[in-house]
Amino acid sequence: MMNTDDVVIHVKEMLERASRPITEECCIYRVPLLIRQLNQEAYTPKIVSIGPYHHNSLHLQNMERHKVMYLKSFLERTNTSMESWIHYIASKEPLIRHCYSDALQFTPNKLVEIISVDSGFILELFWTSNYGTDDMYLSLPWFATTIFCDLLLLENQLPFFVLHDLFCLSVANFGNNDIPPFILLTFGYFQSLNESICLLIQCHHDLRSLTNFYLCGENKTTHGEEPMATNSSVNKWSEAGIKFAITKAMNTGKDVDILVRDGIMENLLGDSDAAAERTKRLCRNIVLSDFQF
Question: Are both 231 and 86 inside the same structural domain?
């Protein structure tokens, strides 16, 4: 006969450990499976893992030693002790854990280690990208570009407040008022995204939130006018005299050619039809809320 007392005890223990899966601190999410299945590679870092989600990916392990060297370089540059970093991150470990939507399987000590190394890598990377670097390996154009793209991925993030606080903790040793705030170093690194866009700053979220942007068209409709359908093609808009567009309207290679011609995008693939198809795949299942021209 079933012993219900044991079941009651077990369920009570489960209830005592229960906590909300998503908290108000959460700001770093997994890509929904439905979207990831459309193009797995589009949401997976190619060279460097940042944060816990992709830390154990085998194809990213080669960068771990480079990240450690960057951490060492930044600590030496700022004359900062590793102990001060560990103590700070350890004090914020529960909050950092809550910043991620998925339950993290790492122990507190391991998570602190991951955050320490990855934070050091990013801080040194941003510093050297603004002031120059002697690292011939990470300075290779194709390598630097791939790292840049990896840092924009939704799942490849650290909480911004951690980076900000560690930077302030470190540069305080300089006693030099000429050192720019960390947010300016961030803007400097992502300078290519800051041209001709409206940047939305949400400092309490992750790095990627600093690069969220919207195209700013010169001519928008008034609230009483009917907005143009977003499934129209760029080619049709161009024929109507409209010189700006969004990627959801990129249906053909000719659309890509128009966007390249007008300086809205740069086609690094070379093949216009391939660029249109790649963009359409990335934009599937994306919903634009409150969109208007």
Answer: no
